[in-house]
Write a structure and sequence with these properties.
The complex is a heterodimer of chains A (about 110) and B (about 375). With about 110 residues, chain A is of the alpha/beta class. In chain A, about 45% of the residues lie in helices and about 30% in strands. Chain A has a five-stranded mixed β-sheet with strand order 1-2-3-4-5, with helices on both faces. Chain A starts with a strand and ends with a helix. Chain B has twelve helices and 15 strands. In chain B, the strands form three sheets. A six-stranded mixed β-sheet of chain B has the order 6-7-8-3-9-10, sandwiched between helices. In chain B, strands 11-12-13-15-14 form a five-stranded antiparallel β-sheet, with helices on both faces. In chain B, strands 2-1-4-5 form a four-stranded antiparallel β-sheet, with helices on one face. The chains are: A alpha/beta (about 110), B alpha/beta (about 375). The interface between A and B is medium-sized, with 14 and 18 residues.
Chain lengths: ~110, ~375
């Protein structure tokens, strides 16, 4: 797994790549928690390079959202497509998280 | 007419036939099907004593032909064999191929033998080829001559050993239609074949051979529509399977995924199907994880080429456990994903095992 972060004016952009599954989920969770405890409250998660997600990955997003909400922050998702999109649709996650076509529009939404 | 009891055949240490018992009645047409190397041809060759059986008994009209005192050449006249590779006498004309046996072994006069042979050649549609030599004939024609030559000996039963396997696809049907015609005329036949449609509509009884014995037998309808035993089903539905055993909660998900992908690749399954399969397997294993410390899990993925269906069976040891009825799940996420990708989920308690069968939804093409 590989996480890249970049700090934008309105939010922290987190790029997830490869697979978000039972094997990689604990590491993702750790890194997200570290960012949140480090003071970040506004996030844009970029899914463009994510090929696969399972329920273990969805749980990481839920846990992350919970922590962010506790700090009155925001989480927006961008570039969700293909197989990942289908899992979002099946599980109803599409209606839980605000989803955007691009990182730019997600950032705009966070700023607003 | 023919009663075979506990027939066995070994070549050195190699056991080809373990224990075959069957009775063939006059007028029956029996097809023998099964994977290659399971003793089908050896079985025919043993009946005809081309291979000497290692054990058991073969009674023909009440006479045990394995008795050292039995008159083998006389017994062989009662049955005749059609081979995959025709085995015609290349230096003799078609007519001579047909008459040599009746003249030399049955004591027929040449003119009687020729008259009869002409009738037989008409029967197989080759009257005009009486003067030709085998080299001048196509594969299908050669095999029809071989069948006519068999009939010339007036056998009580004909044994066919993959009669169409060496033929071009275009010539298969002419040979099969000759065999069909003999079946209609009431000829007793045992046919080893890979032509499933043919076996289905020509025979009264089908023997599925595997592991050196008759693994399952029944009417064509029983064997082709409702095979009861696992290997028969796998053969009839052209099922390929992949097994994976998990004995620890620290199983190697990626190692297993790679093997599943390789299996899918071999079956040429579409990308989408592979992704769904991998997702279902991961979600299922997540559900099983709490139990993997004490229970073992066996997973079998099966793809039926005939039905184009993909199913996954999870068999776990330990006390009764239906994951889908379990109230201890952390959330519904895994379950929701699995349910939306499957057509059906079926739980059974079998002996001391739990069995879950998942059938994947078919991809819309």
């Amino acid at each position: 797994m590989n996480i890249q972060t970049s700090k934008e004016s309105s939010a922290m952009v987190v790029k997830v790549t490869g697979r978000l599954d039972a094997v990689t989920a604990p590491e993702y969770e750790q890194q997200f928690t570290a960012l949140i405890t480090g003071g970040e409250t506004r996030f844009v998660v970029d899914f463009e390079k994510l090929d696969y997600i399972s329920s273990a990955g969805l749980r990481v997003l839920l846990a992350m959202a919970k922590q962010i909400k506790a700090k009155s922050g925001q989480i927006h998702l961008a570039n969700i497509g293909g197989a990942v999109r289908e899992v979002f649709d099946i599980s109803g996650f599409g209606s839980i998280f605000p989803m955007h076509e691009s990182v730019i529009s997600a950032l705009n939404a966070t700023a607003g | 007419m023919i009663k075979i009891e506990h027939l066995s055949k070994k070549f050195g240490d190699l056991v080809v036939l373990r224990d075959v018992t069957i009775e063939i009645k006059s007028g029956e047409v029996i097809s023998i099907i099964g994977p290659s190397g399971t003793g089908k041809s050896t079985f025919l060759r043993c009946i005809n004593l081309l291979d000497r059986p290692s054990g058991g008994a073969i009674h023909i009209d009440g006479v045990n032909i394995l008795d050292p005192k039995a008159d083998v050449s006389k017994i062989r006249q009662k049955m005749n064999m059609v081979f995959q590779s025709f085995n015609l006498f290349a230096h003799l004309s078609v007519m001579e191929n047909l008459t040599i046996g009746p003249v030399k072994l049955l004591g027929l006069s040449r003119s009687d033998a020729e008259r009869k042979s002409r009738d037989l050649l008409k029967l197989v549609g080759l009257a005009e080829k009486a003067g030709s030599y085998p080299d001048e004939l196509s594969g299908g024609q050669k095999q029809r001559v071989a069948i006519a030559r068999c009939m010339a000996m007036e056998p009580r039963i004909i044994l066919f050993d993959e009669p169409t396997s060496a033929l071009d696809p275009t010539m298969v049907s002419e040979v099969l239609s000759v065999i069909r015609r003999l079946a209609k005329d009431g000829m007793t036949m045992a046919i080893v074949t890979h032509e499933m449609d043919f076996a289905r509509d020509v025979s009264n009884r089908v023997l599925y051979m595997d592991e050196g014995c008759i693994y399952e037998e029944g009417t064509p309808e029983e064997i082709f529509e409702r095979p009861q035993k696992e290997k028969t089903r796998a053969f009839i539905n052209r099922i390929r399977s992949f097994h994976y055993h998990i004995g620890t909660p620290d199983y190697d998900l990626y190692g297993m995924n790679a093997e599943i992908e390789m299996f899918c690749e071999k079956q040429i399954l579409p990308m989408k199907t592979r992704q769904n399969l991998l997702l279902i397997v991961e979600e299922m294993l997540q559900l099983y994880t709490p139990w993997l410390r004490t229970a073992h899990l066996d997973m079998t993925i099966s793809y039926s080429e005939k039905k184009e269906s993909l199913e996954v069976v999870f068999e776990s040891s330990g006390s009764a456990l239906n994951l889908f009825d379990n109230a201890q799940l952390p959330d519904e996420l895994g379950l929701t994903i699995i349910k939306s990708l499957t057509e059906s989920i079926d739980y059974q308690r079998l002996g001391d095992k739990n069995r879950l069968l998942l059938i994947l939804k078919k991809m819309v093409k």
